[in-house]
Specification:
Number of strands: 5
Radius of gyration: 15 Å
Strand order of the largest sheet: 2-3-1-4-5
CATH superfamily: P-loop containing nucleotide triphosphate hydrolases
CATH topology: Rossmann fold
Largest sheet: 5 strands, parallel
Bound molecules: shikimate-3-phosphate
CATH class: Alpha Beta
Length: about 170
Amino acid sequence: MKLVLIGYMGSGKSSIGQKLSSVLNYNFIDLDSEIEKTEGTSIPDIFQHKGEIYFRKKEAAVLEDVVSGGDNAIIATGGGTPCYGRVMDDLLEQEDVITVYLKCSVDTLTDRLFNQKEHRPMISHLDTVELLNDFIRKHLFERSFYYNRAENTIVCDGMDEKEVVEKILLSLF
Ligand code: S3P
């Protein structure tokens, strides 16, 4: 089985995914890290030198690769992964794949992201909390159409990572 975590930047996909993988004894795959490995450079560098369209094609191809691997795995996607091309359709069509949306409010995401936006090319230019909050509100509205197609949705506001992991486990088994 593959558990694919989706959700906006800052929703906790990587850290929750890591914790979940040790509880379930599954492999953990972080899609952004996989892309960085195959490209031999960082995500901001890919955006800067090759552009977003190149990145989106790459992330869809790397996801297809890791999802088709044989072992049980938790896969943490990037915030935009399910929102381009046929990525969400393909995930939903596969029987051994379960999609989980880690849902956070705009204010939770703004709080988490303001101090860690430098390495995130989509938001690194937003200098004030107000600008970031406005950007996330619009961006999340556009992306929610894709996120809401996930088979499971976990509302994460006000919960620590352990509680989110428990909630995911309860929703699965
Ligand atoms: C992106 C999110 C990032 C990374 C890239 C683009 C996005 O991943 O894939 O910077 O479009 O939301 P995280 O959600 O892990 O920050």
